[in-house]
TrEMBL record:
Catalytic reaction annotation: D-ribulose 5-phosphate = D-xylulose 5-phosphate
Protein name in the entry: Ribulose-phosphate 3-epimerase
CDD domains noted in UniProt: RPE
Cofactor(s) required for function per UniProt: Co(2+); Fe(2+); Zn(2+); a divalent metal cation
InterPro entries per record: Aldolase_TIM, Ribul_P_3_epim, Ribul_P_3_epim-like, RibuloseP-bd_barrel
Gene: rpe
Organism of this sequence: Alkalibacterium kapii
Residues that coordinate or bind substrate: 6, 64, 140-143, 173-175, 195-196
Functional note: Catalyzes the reversible epimerization of D-ribulose 5-phosphate to D-xylulose 5-phosphate.
Amino acid sequence: MKIAPSILSADFANLKEDIEKVEDGGADWIHVDSMDGHFVPNLTFGSNIVKAIRPHTELPIDCHLMVENPEDYIKGFAEAGADYISIQYESTKHVHRALQLIKKSDVKAGIVINPATPVSLVEDILSIVDMVLVMTVNPGFGGQSFIPETVNKIRQLDQWKKDKGHDFLIQVDGGINDSTIKVCADAGAEVCVAGSYIYNSKDPKARIQKLKNAVKN
Ligand code: DX5
Ligand code: ZN
């Protein structure tokens, strides 16, 4: 299981240190939540934050775009040094075209589905994505509670991977702690995003280890 701490819950005045802390603690990726105040009722940051942190970490930077018209921002995130760019299925009429644009930029492409979005809607694009992110909360804020009804979607994706031989990663995001991570891992999740569980602690390193230990067989 890969752990991707979300910097949404980090201390923005000490972002460099907060990234070093999780990197030292065994984090696998850094998750960047970009929100535009339209697709979700909250505002965060754009590709400038990726550009700023890129020189300070060797870890893959995983960008989750919660923005309308994600097509307009892909080039910027790619040039800033993103390794993964994931777009929300609900955010554009032209999902396939936007995913192609990400791949053309030599960045790995992810598709994200909200809790109310059926997983069947992404079945026809599984061959072109590198990752499917199942939102386990409604996007927009850190610190919300895990929605258990989303777990069936993880199971279905895992089944499709086995049946059809696709090699995309299954990622989950929202409400992840040392008990919900187990539920997701058992269903087939391979990358877990965690924000508040890691950063709202005096010892983020210990929290990452707790997450990893929770899913050790
Ligand atoms: C929510 C974001 C998440 C958020 C998760 O819209 O996509 O990445 O940071 O936060 P926690 O882990 O606190 O639910
Ligand atoms: Zn996210």
